[in-house]
Design a protein that fits this description.
The protein has about 250 residues and is of the alpha/beta class. The chain is built from eight helices and eight strands; from the N terminus they run αβββαβααβαβαβαβα. The protein has one domain: Alpha/Beta hydrolase fold, catalytic domain (Rossmann fold). About 50% of the residues are buried.
């Protein structure tokens, strides 16, 4: 399996000159980016381009400005998917690479270390937000029903496992698909039956390219920056509400 069609169609990441406001630290043996403070902790999972593009740091800082204590993880340990293999071809074995390098079994210790880092910094409630493939990691993180008050993210790529994630997640979900991303109606149908179903948030951004809140987001364009700001605001409000009820 390659990237989702929407991910492939979105093209290459946009070069950003953003200057991060937070700090680069370690959580366990992995690199993380820290920003913000307070009791409301958020673990951020980047898209397949990892820490290789600065938009992830800008997103983390925006969550920090919204009142969150943020820890973004580097799932690929400085070796994200490379541009010479994008868009992925069958012989590149994208799915195999992703499973080997950043499957949930590999990333759970990183997510746990990020939570521990946030706890040490004063956080007492937690959310997990991902982008593109990272939404699948956020959804997996929400399966334990204890650590996270809310999970999800923007322009999700769940690679056809939407219902599997929906059946297993144990907390409210936010899903903000962009142009070409899968319909969230099947997930909503499952989660509407849960006690927390009314706390879930779904909103499409069909006027935006897949990746607009992450590495494909050209925030120098006012319309893209405004849409990304709305998406971050929706996710921030969702998390605050979910945390207040958890």
């Amino acid at each position: 399996m390659a990237c989702s069609e929407a991910c492939t169609a979105a093209g290459a990441p946009v070069v950003s000159n953003y200057e991060p406001k937070g700090t680069f630290e370690k959580a366990g043996s992995a690199d993380v980016y820290r920003s913000g403070s307070g009791a409301l902790g958020v673990v951020i999972i980047p898209d397949i381009f990892g820490f290789g593009h600065k938009q992830v740091f800008q997103v983390a800082d925006r969550f920090a400005e919204a009142g969150f204590n943020v820890c973004a993880i580097d799932p690929f340990h400085g070796k994200p998917w490379t541009m010479d293999r994008f868009p992925p071809k069958p012989e590149h074995d994208f799915k195999g690479w992703l499973g080997r390098e950043a499957g949930w079994d590999k990333l759970k210790p990183q997510v746990d270390a990020a939570v521990a880092k946030l706890k040490a910094a004063g956080a007492t409630k937690f959310g997990c937000i991902g982008f593109c493939w990272g939404v699948s990691i956020a959804m997996a993180a929400g399966q334990d029903g204890h650590t996270f008050s809310g999970v999800g993210g923007a322009h999700p790529a769940l690679f056809g496992h939407d219902l599997d994630y929906a059946e297993k997640v144990q907390c409210p979900v936010v899903l903000l698909p962009a142009q070409g991303d899968a319909d969230t109606a099947p997930v909503k149908k499952v989660l509407d039956k849960r006690p927390y179903g009314t706390k879930c948030v779904y909103q499409r951004f069909d006027d935006q390219t897949h990746g607009f809140v992450a590495a494909r987001g050209d925030w120098s364009k006012p319309e893209v920056a405004a849409a990304a700001g709305r998406a971050i605001g929706l996710m921030a409000d969702f998390l605050k509400h979910a945390m207040s009820q958890h």
